[in-house]
Amino acid sequence: MDCAVNPVNIEKFLILPIAEGSRTVTEVLSKEGSFKILEVLSEDPLSLRQISRKTGLPFVDVENKIMALVESDLVERKSISSGLEEEKYIYGPSNRFIVFSSEDNTTVV
Description:
By secondary structure, the chain is α+β, with helices and mostly antiparallel strands. Helix content is about 35%, strand content about 20%. The protein has helices at about 25-30, 35-40, 50-55, 60-70; strands at about 15, 75-80, 90-95, 95-100.
């Protein structure tokens, strides 16, 4: 693929050096249930309660894992409030690819 002809949207990638900086993302992904959450979110954006129901994970666990996934830029939170009621949120995948690179960016995995 010629990048001049088919430019790559760099914002679609979460590029992490293979070093301390990537530890947070790998720790979040290694937690039991995180992939299950990402799997159900790949179908449709959902609220915390809907995620809990679809995954069978306790609400508190879902809430903690979602916050970690949001902080790691793997999940996005969107507001769906109507203005009359309490603000509500739905969560969906951030539609980004994770790329690990050497600290000097000479090697990409």
